[in-house]
Amino acid sequence: MSPKQLISRRDLLWKLGGGGVGLGLAQLLAAEGQTPRTHFPAKAKHLILISLPGGLSHIDSFDYKPELARHHGKETQGANTITPFFGKRGTLMRSPWTFRPYGQSGKMISDLFPNFAQRADDLTFIHSMVSRSNAHGPAIFQMSTGFIFQGFPSVGAWISYGLGSENENLPSFVVLPDARGLPPCGAANWGNGFLPAAHQGVVFGGEKQPVADLHPPSSISQEQQAASYDLLTQINHSHLQSHPGEDALVARIKAYELAARMQLTAPEVTNLAGESEKTKQMYGLDQPASRAFGYNCLLARRLVERGVRCVQLFNGGHFGSPRVNWDAHEDLVANHSKNAETFDKPVAGLLADLKQRGLLAETLVVITTEFGRLPISEGLGEGGRDHNPEGYTSILAGAGLKAGFSYGSTDELGYKAVSPTTVYDFHATILHLMGIDHTRLTFYHNGLQRRLTDVHGHVISAVLA
Amino acid sequence: MRPSGLVIFLVCAPAWPSQEIVQLFSSHCAPCHNQQTKLSELNVESRQGLLQGGRRGPAIVVGRHQESRLYQWVAEGKMPPGKRLNEADVRRIAAWIDAGAPWPAASSHPTANQTWWAFQPPVKPSGGSIDFFIEAKLRQHGLALNPPADHRTLIRRLCFDLTGLPPEPSDYALTYEQAVDRYLASPRYGERWARHWLDVVRFGETDGGEHNHERLQAWPYRDWVIQSLNADLPYDQFVREQIAGDVLSPEDPKRVAATGFLVAGPWDSVSAVLNKDATLKLQARMDELDDMVTTVSHSFLALTVNCARCHDHKFDPIPTRDYYRMTAFFTGVGFGEREVGSEEERQKLEQQLKPLREELAQRKRDLATLEDPPRARILAARYAAFDQQRASAPRRIPLNPVWNRNAFPATKSQRFRLVVLGHVGERARLSYLELLPAGHRVTNWTAQRLASADQPEILEIELGQAVEVNEIRWASDPEFARREGSISIYRFEVFEPGSGWRLLCSSLDHVGAQELDLPAVEDSELESALDGPAQEKRRQLMASIQALEKQLEVAPSSKIFAAKPREPEKSYVLERGNVTRRGEEVGPATLSAIPLPSPNLEGASAGLRRLALANWIADPRNPLTARVIVNRVWHWHFGNGIVNTPSDFGVNGERPSHPELLDWLAVSFMENGWSLKWLHRQIVLSKTYRQSSTFQAKAHAIDAGNRLLWRMPLKRMDAETLRDSILWASGNLNLRMGGPSFQLQKKGTRGSYIYKALDVDGPEVWRRTVYRFVVRGGERLMIDSFDCPDPSVATPQRAFSNTPVQALTLLNNEFVVRQASYFAQRLLAEAGLEGVIERAYQILFGRQPTAEELARDRRFLENQPLALYCRVLFNSNEFVYVP
To answer: How crowded is residue B687: how many other Cβ atoms within 10 Å of its Cβ?
Structure first.
């Protein structure tokens, strides 16, 4: 594609470069008033991406496997002999949770997610996901960037590059890491790779300093900050006089004007004073276990409401001790129960809130992990499950989707996807819903016109409404 | 970087309908029905193959999709097996058959062959100079060079370009030629240009990925680059040492360090080491080799050889076989630290460090003696609590019931014991317990009772003499473990005459212990369990341990993170890049399309093979090597390359804007001993380089991208230059060269691989940014907003973006605010209150303020602090842009 077509006029302000990037004020003005032009009509204007690092067990959550219970305690054999990541092979282990039907669709969901399950009729399940790696790093990279290697642009960066922001006072791609810490592989999950730095995810923190460096240290007063902006503008304008025609210098002056406005806008987003108690409860802010993630979910809604293109949330932190993500090697019950408690109410609340405000009709919500977990226990007689890249579940919700719908499946034990859906397909579908043809959103780097989906990917048309 | 969207290349991505079909067949059908495999005799990789069909007859009937077997089978879902094509694809196939099954003609690809320009030896045009070629081209377009820039501008431009720092105010008194001599001779030159090269080679000091380990000994490679550039090491030798320095001089630590080049990129230790899946392990190894082939061919040859990993290169004449023959050069190289220097030197070094190490060990022992009793008491209370919990959730046991190990600091004694405090199931049995390194074993011990914290089961081990132990391994009989049970909570202790039993390790040490929610013993808990004098002693011990560790961390090491020798494996052509589908075995050979014969490597050792590759690349007859580096240097001076895709001289790369100039530079460069300083001198002394950057509307209308160089481009400082320049202005820049890197991000504790940004100030972090510890995927730093790349992929060209976040960073970041205060102090000290504005302009801009500026800035300073003013100047366009 020609990215120019996909970039709004406002957005140019974010992308304008000196020398290198090459888009100048002339193009900026020529494009004035232009809204983003997508490859085809977009179903969703915004993307909320919720990542569950560590590996959520599909067979204990959304992929109901009655056969697994029947075979509990048996060994796997033949073609299905499993080599787990840590090499400790156990026997088939039934899910410790009870599954119940929910909603009109009667979707079977486990007791891990009693609140989230209530949204079953808003959800589209993809049960046939596969990952290219059984190790967290590459699998997480693949989910975040399409490639199993580090250093490629993230999904949010691609979308920012393609569509820009609707609100010039906020970044187009915002990241909300788990309060328990950055996810595994850290900032590489929202990196811009070889795309310009304008597209890297901007981490939003607490209320006081929502964006790093948003405010000066407390030693500088508001009045001093205003005086600084003022002097800087004068200095830059008189410098510009001796450099007529330099678009890059003009663009940089503009960037400071935007920065000044962002200093006002960003704190307004993170200030929840205007939210009712009822709303806060909906997101689980009243309960200790779900308060932190609930805050992030509520923030996601507020960001999307204000025109931010992509918000990526992480439910789970890095590896190490103590374990604060879904990597249930030792004790599935303890691990998943604890994490589900942080996830359940906030995400249920987010979906309900988006829906009641009419935002779900223009927002795509994606919930995914990097791989599933094995139907066998990790080691004999133990209570954990090891990694399973051969089959897992991802969930979509929102605009342009068949709601209350399940697509694809794993085998009767939940081990292997029957007809695999790749992460490429998954990403192609996300871009499609955002109005982008995944084969035409490209950027030249080191000899290749790079894509999010490499040279693969097919839109999963069966899930589209 | 390339102006996005101005030029569209067709790469692997399909671009026209028939190409889409080829792609479709290639991903869904060709895995079985390709030219080699031809399952059922069918080959879908050519139109002819489809017409001819397979065992059941033709696959397509042109113009009639209903009658085409291929269509029928995919529509019915018979093919591909287990994965039905989606409807859109099926429709696409039908439409394509009906449209006559067009196949992209080979000629519609802009494929290169041996006649490709970059594969022809460069020929030096008779006569000529940089200005000759540039001006000739400008004239053809009715344009001309801008007039020369003024002296002040030139000195600034030159100093930033060559040293990455602003000129000293006194430098403006030099003639231009004197300044060229001074800057090229300055050690700052090597630091500046090393940073450019480190971008190309994706130099990082952590592994990246999930287990993002630190590489504390990777800096010698960075130092080698800086020193080589400062010494003007001939470029052909620069190439040789990076690929095979360890083979050239195995005893020379510097040359060994040069091979840090091969392993400077990310490394997935989890997939390579921890992972138990054999296929994925092989895959991880192929990824290592791929990284080396990619980097060598990108950096030195500007060829995307890596595109041929799964299929023949779609555009360049690089068959898959060539790719795998290239991997064979690197089979003897692995990732990790290696010993350097002679045995004698290593011993000498070890002798030097021995007292430090011993002192550290002693301090640690002292600390343990102090802390262990209270820690044991606190832990015992935790165990008791856990035991109660266990009663209600007996399965929540994190141990491997079959096999376990624990490591701990070496300890010497005659008596040890295993204290079992709990198990899963009714009984537990050990098939063996082994004390390492000596290897004493106890076998077949069974705990008969159900052990508990109150009633432990104890296995005592008494030996004939005292032995040193630093690890235990124990195993249960799996069958027994399954039927009856296994040990879950235990402590392993040593008996020390005089003081009694001391804890060495326990079940809590296992990774999984955290799942029990048993918190580790916190510092504060230990602190409060000790009395005043003991607390004081503990603080002293901890401080001296920290100091000793720091000392050892920066002490000379006999280890370097560089190409690590390993047993070379055999190389095979892998069908479609799949490690489980080995084809023909291949030996090392260079690229067949390049008209320089591959060396004969029959029977050569892995090291000699690598050296042969290095020599082949550094051969003056290699058509690419000199062209590629002169183009890179040109690109870093002018912002555009003559070929503006500096790491791709293949068909998808750009054609040279000035092919004769490129060849003239390449050949002259070789004639002048591959001297980079010679090359810089040619460039910076040219009229082209010395012209002004004034904007010309007429020229802009003809050549908006300034590819013809009708002016010198205005350049925003890159991230490192900006940080260094601020430090320089504030008077704080610490010019200490080389050695271990300073850290702006620090790895988390307790097994976390997240690198937190540190808020640090002081001379150590005031060193030049090239000496920063380069973390992959660390928490955000100020320089990230200025397009400082994460070194996970190579960055031959940096982006220069401009964003509000960047503006906020330069205004509000602690670093900038602090340095602005230091700058203010410096101004006051040097110029007094009256002279601060003039002095600031002199330092930052190399000029006097105009009367207007002086008045304006004075007005500001009447009401505002000087530091605030300094911060504004750091943010000004005049400071951030190099004219």
So the answer is: 15
A32 against B612, higher pLDDT: B612
Poorest-pLDDT segment among A344-348, B87-91, B180-184, B706-710 = B87-91
Q: Which tokens belong to B543? A: 């401080």
Half-sphere exposure of A341 (CA within 13 A, CB side): 11
List, for residues B551-596, the tens digit of each pLDDT value: 887 788 889 999 999 999 999 999 888 888 899 999 999 999 898 9
Are A362 and A386 found together in one domain? Answer: yes
Residue A316 sits in the same domain as residue A261: no
- Residue A126: CB partners within 8 Å, gap ≥ 6? A393, A394, A395, A396, A407, A408, A421, A426, A460, A463
Q: What pLDDT score does A107 carry?
A: 97
pLDDT exceeding 70 applies to what percent of chain A?
90
The Cα angle at residue B771 between residues B768 and B776, in degrees rounded to 5: 125
3-state class (DSSP) for residue B755: strand
CB–CB of B307 and A323 under 8 A?
A: no
Pair A112, A235 in one domain: no
- The mean pLDDT of A62-68, rounded to a whole number, is 95
Of A63-67, A106-110, A388-392, B468-472, the poorest mean pLDDT is in B468-472
**Distance of residue A384 Cα from the nearest chain B Cα, in angstroms:** 9
In whole angstroms, give the CA distance from residue B45 to residue B436: 59
Backbone phi, psi, residue B42, to 5°: -95, 135
Give me the pLDDT at residue A19, please. 29
Do residues A201 and A223 both lie within one domain? no
Region label for B673, one of left (φ > 0), alpha (ψ between -120 and 50) or beta (otherwise)? left
Cis upstream peptide for B849 (omega within 30°): no
Whether residues A255 and B4 touch (CB distance < 8 A) is answered with: no
B152: part of which helix (H) or strand (E)? Answer: helix B151-163
What total number of domains does chain A contain? 3
Across the interface, whether the CB atoms of A249 and B1 are under 8 A apart is answered no
CA–CA distance, A62 with A51 (Å, rounded to integer) = 16
Task: Evaluate if residue A15 carries a pLDDT over 70.
Answer: no
Q: Kindly state whether A267 is in contact with chain B, defined as any CB-CB distance less than 8 angstroms.
A: no
Residue of chain A nearest B636, judged by CA positions: A20
Query: What's the CA gap between B326 and B321, in Å, rounded?
Result: 9
Q: Say yes or no: A331 and A396 in one domain.
A: yes
From residue A429, how far is each of A133, A178, A422, B802 by CA, in Å? Answer: 21, 26, 11, 31
SS (H, E, C) B821-869: HHHHHHHHHHHHHHHHHHHHHHHHHCCCCCHHHHHHHHHHHHHCCHHHH
Confidence of residue B390 (pLDDT cuts 50, 70, 90): very low
What residue numbers bound the domain in which A412 lies? 46-207+279-463
Q: How close A114 comes to chain B (CA, Å)?
A: 23
Q: What share of chain B is helix, strand, coil (3-state, %, to 5)?
A: 50, 15, 35
* pLDDT given for residue A26 in this prediction: 29
What does the DSSP 8-state code read for residue B168? Answer: P
- pLDDT category, B482, cuts 50, 70, 90? low
Same domain membership, residue A57 and residue A143: yes
Task: Answer yes or no: do A67 and A194 share one domain.
Answer: yes
pTM of the model: 0.75
Nearest CB partner across the interface for A446, out of B298, B396, B401: B298
Query: Same domain, yes or no, for A86 and A197?
Result: yes
ipTM of the complex, rounded to two decimals: 0.74
- Considering only CB atoms, which chain A residues are within 8 Å of B397? 382-383
Segment 175-234 of chain A within 8 Å of chain B by CB: 181-182, 184-188, 191, 193-198, 200, 202-203, 211-217, 219-220, 224-225, 227-228, 231-232, 234
B845 bridge partner residues? none
Q: Which two tokens stand for residue B727?
A: 């430090």
